[in-house]
Fold this protein.
Amino acid sequence: MKLRNIKRIVTSIIITSLTCIALSLIIYQAQSFQNWLNSEYTQHKQLIIIGWFLLFAYYSVCLFNLWQTDTKEKYYLFLFGIQFFAFAVYSISLYCFSAYALATVGSILCVIFSFWLAIKLFKNKQYVLMFLIIGLMFIYLYCAFCGVLYCSIEYGVWKD
């Protein structure tokens, strides 16, 4: 039992670390991210970078805990994987392509799938995991709000 937990911890860390590295390399090389990161009005660049890696550490904790409680009937990992993929689409579309409409759709999908996962966890009395996922849902709600704001600024009728 202890060996299986260690394997799950190591696997969770490896999965989220590789995803973090891949997304970091993709996003860091993006032109719009470089323009945003190197502009004069961007403050606290170190906090943004630290927050990025702390987010993936949080993903690792969520993944490990969901893996501990997942069974074939509950599909926790599947829902977590979909919302994690939707976050990757959000990040790439926002920072690489400045596709604000696609980023907004990605963040809304993140909210939907994390809400669905939180409800499934609540029904199965997994309250600690539910609150972990609700924390992610608040991050996704903020991303959706910013996406709608960016879309209205970029594509709004009043832009001209």
